[in-house]
Write a structure and sequence with these properties.
mainly alpha
Length: about 110
């Protein structure tokens, strides 16, 4: 799990968060270490720790939101994206993810 988070963080630093998630999920239809809900819940906890320990880092809120959204916790994901947007209101990726989380909540 730690390796998966390191990979995810390194991709986000290179502005490739979507690619990182796809790679960790094993591409289209493939199995990977992140196929299980338990693994995603572990990543939710790890990303929450990072967002708490380094709250000034926009990417920590982005990743935490993405992990929350993956397990269907869209209200919490939206809150994480809002925390990131409070730090960088111009972040288009966070804006798009917030819209997705809000749409998921309306369903």
């Amino acid at each position: 799990y730690v390796h998966a988070m390191v990979l995810l963080f390194s991709e986000v630093e290179a502005d490739n968060a979507g690619i990182a998630i796809e790679r960790l999920l094993g591409g289209s239809g493939g199995r990977s270490a992140l196929d299980t809900r338990e693994t995603w819940e572990s990543l939710v906890m790890l990303s929450a720790d990072n967002a708490r320990d380094w709250p000034e880092d926009v990417d920590n809120h982005l990743l935490h939101g993405m992990c929350l959204a993956e397990v269907g916790r869209h209200a919490e994901a939206a809150a994480a994206y809002r925390r990131g947007l409070a730090l960088d209101p111009s972040d288009k990726h966070l804006q798009a993810l917030l819209r997705q989380a809000q749409e998921a909540l309306r369903r």
